[in-house]
Design a protein that fits this description.
Radius of gyration: 20 Å
Strand order of the largest sheet: 3-2-1-4-5-6-12
Strand content: 15-25%
Number of helices: 8
CATH superfamily of the largest domain: NAD(P)-binding Rossmann-like Domain
CATH architecture of the largest domain: 3-Layer(aba) Sandwich
CATH class of the largest domain: Alpha Beta
Bound molecules: nicotinamide-adenine-dinucleotide
CATH topology of the largest domain: Rossmann fold
Largest sheet: 7 strands, parallel
Order of helices and strands: EHEHEEHEHEHEHEEEEHEH
Distance between the termini: 29 Å
Number of domains: 2
Length: 268
């Protein structure tokens, strides 16, 4: 039986990619679409996007869905995710909830983790296999070189992106800090003016914004005799959308808990 799937942020760049792929995938039956209503103006999703979803309408609230989903994928906006998630967490029937949205505050992440006590939940700032391998390589490089090399993170995204640094860059930073295991390291976001010499325990964080860049991340280890750069470039949004669908399938039969991409990709 196909998994009944609802997509939150359905009109977005990611939402559309997920719906397009879900329509071609027999694992899923697209049963619910949620977004801000002003984009549909009474039209069906198919009329707005051209995707073959028949008479499926987009609604703005979870309670308006005609069919109860068995899995939810949310790529919207951090405040929107918090509102939808709170509503779903209060339902009697616990629905697996995949969060691809980025830009959460520390307190919002704590609340998300709290909800994972009552429902299967997965939060990942980047659902591509390649970037998750980049996290692992960052771990290895930090452990072996981190203390003697200068570390910088450079990310690039399209000119519509709301949050900076990207959720993926912040995850890379978290991996580096966890593996340096030294509280004296600190982050410098960009450099401007007479900033003086680079301090040994700086970790540089730089964000490029422009055009239609889908997502680029580079972790740079600069030593005195050599440099190592590990870099990932997304060539289209399907890598994230495919990852999100994989997460929904993974989470579908899980018991409540907080899951991550390592578990989904078998990298744990
Ligand atoms: N985890 C990943 O792999 C990954 C990959 C790409 C993007 N992202 C993140 O996913 C999010 C969406 O990215 P995008 O490029 O599709 O953005 P987008 O702006 O194209 O789409 C966001 C959609 O959310 C909708 N939205 C806003 N408020 C809403 C609400 N209250 N309820 C329902 N929908 C609402 C918007 O109308 C819009 O259609 C961002 O946070 C982005 O950083 C994550």
């Amino acid at each position: 039986m196909a998994i009944k799937l609802a997509v939150i942020g359905a009109f977005g760049r990611m939402g559309k990619a997920i719906c397009r792929l879900a329509l071609k995938d027999a694992t899923f039956e697209l049963c619910g679409l949620i977004d801000a209503l002003d984009q549909s103006k009474g039209q069906t999703y198919e009329q707005v996007t051209g995707l073959k979803t028949g008479d499926l309408m987009v609604v703005s609230d979870f309670d308006e869905l005609k069919i109860q989903p068995e899995a939810i994928i949310d790529f919207s906006f951090h405040k929107a995710t918090m509102l939808h998630l709170e509503k779903v967490a209060k339902k009697k029937k616990k629905i697996p909830y995949v969060i691809g949205t980025t830009g959460f505050s520390g307190d919002e992440v704590k609340t998300i983790k709290k909800y994972s006590k009552v429902m299967p939940l997965l939060l990942s700032p980047n659902m591509s296999l390649g970037v998750n391998i980049l996290f692992l390589l960052t771990e290895v490089l930090t452990k072996s070189l981190g203390k003697s090399y200068d570390i910088e993170i450079i990310e690039g995204h399209h000119n519509q992106k709301a949050d900076s640094p990207s959720g993926t860059a912040l995850k890379i930073l978290e991996v580096i800090k966890n593996n340096l295991n030294d509280d004296e390291y600190f982050t410098v976001n960009g450099r401007n003016g007479l900033v003086g010499k680079r301090k040994p325990k700086e970790i540089g964080m730089h964000a490029i914004r422009g055009g239609s860049i889908i997502g680029e991340h580079c972790v740079f280890f600069a030593g005195t005799d050599d440099e190592i750069r590990i870099e990932h470039r997304a060539l289209n949004r399907d890598i994230f959308a495919k990852g999100a669908l994989k997460c929904a399938e993974f989470l579908h039969k899980k018991t409540p808990g907080f899951y991550d991409m390592k578990a989904v990709l078998g990298l744990a």
